[in-house]
Specification:
Blueprint (H helix, E strand, L loop, with lengths): L12 E6 L2 H10 L3 H16 L3 E7 L10 H11 L5 E3 L11 H14 L2 E3 L4 E2 L4 H34 L12 E5 L6 E5 L1 H15 L4 H8 L14 H8 L7 E4 L2 E8 L2 E8 L6 E4 L8 H9 L21 E3 L6 E4 L19 H10 L6 H8 L3 H8 L14 H8 L7 H5 L12 E4 L9 E2 H23 L7 H29 L5 H29 L1 H18 L5 H11 E7 L12 E6 L2
Parallel strand pairs: 1-2, 1-3, 3-4, 12-16
Antiparallel strand pairs: 4-5, 6-7, 8-11, 9-10, 13-14, 14-15, 16-17
Helix pairs in contact: 4-5, 6-9, 7-8, 11-12, 15-18, 16-17, 18-19
C-alpha cells in the first residue's frame, strides 16, 4: 500500500524533462514533441495537486551519466541546498540511467534534503522506507532498461553496417547522408563539388605533396571540413586512409574508452584492434578508384618525428592555454644544424616604405627577372622588394645592396647605415618557442624562456598584491558576493565596448583622435573595475588565498634553484590551475608584447 504524502501548497516545485531513447524513436515515426507533451502532463498534475511550478528544466543533451547532463546537475544543486520542496517528473526513471554511483548520488540528494518526487501516478517521499525502496528499484530497473536498449541498438547498427548502410552521425567530406528509399537506414550520396576536391587531395598526395602543403592549399579554397572551420594535417591524413572513398564502410576503427581521472569519468577515442575492424562493401558510390587509393597508402611520411629523449623539456607543459581557441600551447624546439651560420640582426630600423619608393623610382626599364639574374638571387626576393603590399616587404640582402645601387644607379646613402649595420651580439637561432597547436590560429608564439620568466613575475606580483589586500579585509558578507557578480557584469560590458571601438575605427567611423579618447575612457573603467573586483574576490576567497600564499612563496623561492624541468613543472602545477596566453603582434621589438592571465589553484 502506498504512503500518503501531503504537499505544501506554498512550497517551491520545479519540473525536470528528459527524452528517453524510446521517445526519440517514436518522434521519428509520429512527428511530435515529447518534451512539450510531458510539460503539459506535469502542469496538469501540478494543478490537480494545488501546487505551483517555479521553473522547468529541459535536458536537451543526450548523456548516460550525471556528469554529461547539465540540467540534472542544476536540479541536484538546488536539492542539496534545500531550495526546493519537490521535483515533478513523468517517471522516476527520467532522473538518471547512470551507474550505481549516479543512482546513489540522486537517491541520497532527495533523501537527505527531504525533497519529494512527484510523478504522474505517485508522490515519493524518500524518507519513507517503503517509498525509498520503490524509488531505488525504479532507478535500478531504469539502468537495466538502458543497458538492454543500448545492446539492441549496437546489434542493430552492426547489422546495418554489414548490409553496407552508413550508421555514423556525420557524413565524410564529399558525401551527404540520405535516407534509403523503401527501406530502413541511411546511405551516402556524392556531392559533386566536394568529390572533385577529394579527387584532387588524393592526386596531390600521390604526386608526392605533403599533408601540410595540401592543408594550406585547401584553406585557400571556399571548402571547409564537416566539423571545423579550417583544414588540419590530421584531417587530411584521416581522409587519405579512409576506405569510405572506395565505396566501402569501415566500422570499429575507433572505439570509445572510459577512464576515471580525479573522480570524473573521461571518455576518449582510441584506434581499435585490427581483429575488431570491419570493412564491407557499401551501398554508396565510390569517389576514388582502387589504384589511386593504393598508391597513396604506400607513400611513407617524409619527415617522421624523431624522439629526442623522454625527459620533460617544457616547464609550462599543460599549463598554458591559448586565449583564442583554448588549446594547450606547445613547445616548438630548434635543433642545431652543423655548419649553420649564426644569425645576426640589423642594429637600426629601415624605413621600408621610403626604401620601396626609392627602388621603384630607379627601376627604369629593368624587369624584375633582369634584376634577379644580375644579382644572382631568386626572383621571388626581388618581387618582395618591389611589391606594393607593405606586409610582404623584405629588406634587400646586405651583401647585394651595393650591387643593387650600382645596377639601378641609386646615389643616395640614406639607407646604407640601416641596411649594412648589424649588432655585434649573435642572436641564438635555437631558442625554444611556445606556440598554439591549432592550425592557422591567430595567436602568435613567443620565446618559451621569456614566457616562463613572466609567469614567475606574475606569481610574485599576485602574492604581493594579495598580501596587501588581505591585511585590510574583514570576513566576507552576502553583499560582497552581490557586488562581485555586479562588477563582473560591468567588466564584461566594458570589454565589449572596447572591442566595438576597435571595429568602429577599422570601419572608418571613428577618427584616430576619437578612437584614442574613447578607448582611454573605456580602459580606465576596465582598470578600475578589475581593481575593485579583485578586492571583493579576495574577500570571498580569503581563506583559500591565505592557504595558497605560503605555497606560492615556496615556489618562487625554490624555482630557480631546481635544475629538473619536470620538478619545475610540478612546482608550478601545485599553485596554478592554468594560464591564458595572448599575443597579437610579433617580430622584432615585440618579443615581450604578450599578456598572460594566471588562474591560481585554490
Amino acid at each position: 500500500m502506498y504512503n500518503t504524502v501531503t504537499l505544501d501548497p506554498n512550497g517551491i516545485y520545479d519540473v525536470y524533462l528528459r527524452k528517453s531513447r524510446a521517445d526519440m524513436e517514436l518522434e521519428r515515426i509520429k512527428k511530435f514533441d515529447t518534451l512539450k507533451q510531458h510539460e503539459k502532463f506535469l502542469k496538469d498534475r501540478a494543478k490537480q495537486l494545488g501546487i505551483k511550478i517555479r521553473k522547468i528544466y529541459k535536458e536537451v543533451v543526450s548523456g548516460e551519466s550525471i556528469q554529461e547532463r547539465p540540467e540534472i546537475q542544476k536540479i541536484l544543486k538546488n536539492i542539496e541546498t534545500g531550495e526546493v520542496d519537490g521535483i515533478l517528473v513523468v517517471e522516476v526513471e527520467r532522473l538518471t540511467r547512470g551507474d550505481a554511483k549516479d543512482q546513489g548520488v540522486v537517491a541520497q540528494a532527495f533523501k537527505y534534503s527531504n525533497t519529494k518526487i512527484i510523478t504522474l501516478n505517485k508522490i515519493y517521499d524518500p524518507n519513507s522506507e517503503e517509498d525509498e525502496e520503490y524509488f531505488e528499484f525504479g532507478l535500478f530497473m531504469s539502468r537495466r532498461e538502458y543497458k538492454t536498449i543500448n545492446r539492441r541498438m549496437q546489434r542493430g547498427r552492426l547489422a546495418n553496417v554489414l548490409e553496407g548502410k552508413y550508421c555514423a552521425s556525420e557524413p565524410p567530406f564529399g558525401y551527404k547522408k540520405v535516407k534509403i528509399k523503401y527501406a530502413k537506414g541511411f546511405t551516402l550520396e556524392i556531392i559533386p563539388e566536394e568529390a572533385e576536391i577529394v579527387k584532387q587531395i588524393f592526386q596531390k598526395r600521390a604526386d608526392g605533396m605533403g599533408h601540410n602543403i595540401i592543408c594550406n592549399w585547401l584553406n585557400t579554397t571556399d571548402f571547409k571540413p564537416k566539423t571545423s572551420d579550417v583544414w588540419t594535417p590530421s584531417t587530411i591524413k584521416g581522409m587519405l586512409s579512409n576506405p569510405i572513398y572506395l565505396g566501402k564502410i569501415r566500422w570499429n576503427n575507433n572505439k570509445q574508452q572510459k577512464s576515471l581521472v580525479n573522480g570524473q569519468i573521461i571518455k576518449t577515442r582510441k584506434r581499435g584492434n585490427k581483429e575488431d575492424l570491419i570493412i564491407v562493401e557499401g551501398l554508396h558510390e565510390a569517389i576514388i578508384d582502387q589504384t589511386l587509393f593504393d598508391i597513396v597508402q604506400k607513400i611513407e611520411p617524409r619527415n617522421t618525428s624523431t624522439k629526442h629523449g623522454t625527459d620533460l623539456q617544457n616547464p609550462l607543459a599543460t599549463l598554458i592555454k591559448c586565449a583564442d581557441c583554448g588549446r594547450t600551447m606547445q613547445r616548438r624546439p630548434y635543433y642545431e644544424i652543423k655548419g649553420q651560420e649564426p644569425k645576426l640582426r640589423r642594429k637600426y630600423e629601415v624605413d621600408k616604405d621610403k626604401l620601396r619608393l626609392c627602388l621603384r623610382e630607379h627601376k627604369g626599364e629593368y624587369s624584375l627577372r633582369d634584376i634577379a639574374n644580375e644579382l644572382h638571387i631568386s626572383k621571388s626576393v626581388v618581387d618582395h622588394w618591389f611589391s606594393a603590399t607593405i606586409d610582404k616587404f623584405t629588406i634587400p640582402y646586405a651583401d647585394k645592396w651595393e650591387q643593387l645601387k650600382n645596377l639601378l644607379n641609386i646615389t643616395t646613402t640614406e639607407f646604407d647605415k640601416s641596411i649594412m649595420t648589424f649588432e655585434e651580439n649573435i642572436i641564438s637561432p635555437h631558442e625554444d618557442t611556445l606556440i598554439c597547436s591549432k592550425a592557422h590560429c591567430t595567436n602568435i608564439g613567443s620565446n618559451l624562456s621569456i614566457v616562463e620568466k613572466e609567469v614567475i613575475n606574475g606569481l610574485k606580483e599576485y602574492a604581493t598584491t594579495q598580501k596587501e589586500l588581505l591585511s585590510t579585509y574583514i570576513p566576507a558578507e552576502e553583499e560582497d558576493n552581490i557586488m562581485a557578480i555586479s562588477l563582473s557584469k560591468d567588466l564584461e560590458k566594458y570589454n565589449k565596448q572596447l572591442e566595438k571601438a576597435y571595429e568602429l575605427v577599422e570601419q572608418g567611423i571613428y577618427t584616430s583622435k576619437e578612437f584614442t579618447e574613447r578607448t582611454k575612457v573605456i580602459k580606465d573603467r576596465i582598470k578600475n573595475t578589475e581593481k575593485e573586483l579583485n578586492k571583493y574576490q579576495s574577500k570571498l576567497n580569503k581563506n583559500s588565498i591565505e592557504k595558497l600564499l605560503p605555497k606560492i612563496e615556496k615556489v618562487i623561492n625554490s624555482y630557480n634553484k631546481v635544475n629538473s624541468i619536470e620538478k619545475k613543472n610540478k612546482l608550478l602545477k601545485s599553485v596554478i590551475s592554468y594560464i591564458e596566453y595572448k599575443k597579437d603582434k610579433g617580430g622584432r621589438g615585440y618579443e615581450n608584447n604578450f599578456s598572460i592571465v594566471i588562474h591560481p589553484k585554490f
